[in-house]
Amino acid sequence: MSNIIVVGAQWGDEGKGKVIDILAKDFSYIVRYQGGNNAGHTVVIGDEKFILHLIPSGILHRKKICVIGNGVVIDPNALIAEIAKLESEGIEVKGRLFISENAHLIFPYHKVIDELKEMKKGKTKIGTTKKGIGPCYADKVSRSGIRIIDLLSDSVFSEKLKTNIEEKNKILKILYDFKGFSFDRIYKEYIEFRGKIKNFVCDTTLLLNKAIEKRKSILFEGAQGTMLDVDYGTYPFVTSSSATAGGACTGTGVGPTKIGKVLGVVKAYTTRVGEGPFPTEFTKDMMHKIRVKGREFGATTGRPRRCGWFDACLVRYSIIVNGISEIVVTKLDVLDDLEKIKICVAYKYKGKTYEHFTSDIDMLGNSEPVYEEVKGWREDTSGVTAFRKLPKNAKEYLKRIQKLLKTKIILISVGSERRQTIRVE
Ligand code: IMP
After folding, report:
1. Which of 21, 41, 229, 311 is catalytic?
2. Cα–Cα distance measured from residue 390 to residue 388, given in angstroms and rounded to the nearest whole number
3. CA-to-CA distance for 179 and 64, rounded, in angstroms?
4. How many independent structural domains does the chain possess?
5. 45 half-sphere exposure, CB direction, 13 A CA radius
6. pLDDT, tens digit, for every residue of 343-373?
7. Residue 15: CB within 6 Å of ligand 1?
8. What percent of the chain has pLDDT over 70?
């Protein structure tokens, strides 16, 4: 089994948690490589629903090793709460979870800056999850961030934290008239966290590369989606990490020659949370219908997701920037009741037609989608387990998508449970 990256090919929430859960049994290691607890990966097993924010979804498979790579930003509070929750549900975490010593830590000032900056932006806000993700990555890139390895040394941690708090307090006072943070309080709190997490920490780059040497297989679990990637997404309405496949290399220290393929996950329609352009967004009635049927509310923030038609231009672009070789289509069942279904095949802007996705936010926001319309199937697909048993029009819809994307669909999900999955031979 070669090493595989699973990546979201839209704006996140494509159902990667379920896909990872289905695939995990064939891999030894499941690895998160970017993002933080802004992610919410949902896995349903029987009557139980698990939402994982930081720990790879593979933790639900008892014998698998899970890794949080150096590209992830960690809020220790959220991590400790997630470990405790899993353990309270009888899932062993000790000895199965390894955290990179190079991962950066989220501090209370990151969360406050995230929130205040959004408030100040008003109408132009990004609509972040307010988990401190952006400010933490900003510190990382500006070389003032604090890594777990820094927390392990009293003197290094104390010095870095002091410098950061001094700087943040000044910024917070001047820009937001915020009273600031106490060094002593945060220091004490994080030293306590250290005691709770230090046994999970190691050089995960070494761990993973040794595993590869021993021919163990690795599944890389992407968070968010291509359109939220800081380089390739709808900037500035993006997250602050490399949510594309390239992030798996920089976020773990596993080189590109060690990766076999990239699997792209798409919903049978499109959703996004937060602000920013969304050419195929539904109008009010349709929005409500799909949001309710698809339970389109954020797994992390509970915010209603914006919903729209499948955008083939956008996914084609994702296929290119990730090198996606195969596709998984999720939530096909959500479209079961529709009489007609639209697929965006091009955009119209200032009288011209474009088939490619654009990074020009203004152009994207003011483009008219060009739609192809296909007939709906108006049958319940949630119990279908074989491709040949899908209604004719559902098969036609999927075949059309496959043709537009020039990429093979290998898996279809028709519900949140493991059994509601169709493997396409
Ligand atoms: P941040 O990652 O909290 O900074 O948020 C930046 C943008 O990414 C916002 O539009 C969020 O709604 C979006 N976002 C972050 N994480 C996720 C996710 O896991 N799913 C979908 N959208 C996300």
Report:
1. 41
2. 6
3. 45
4. 3
5. 14
6. 999 999 999 999 999 989 999 999 999 999 9
7. no
8. 100
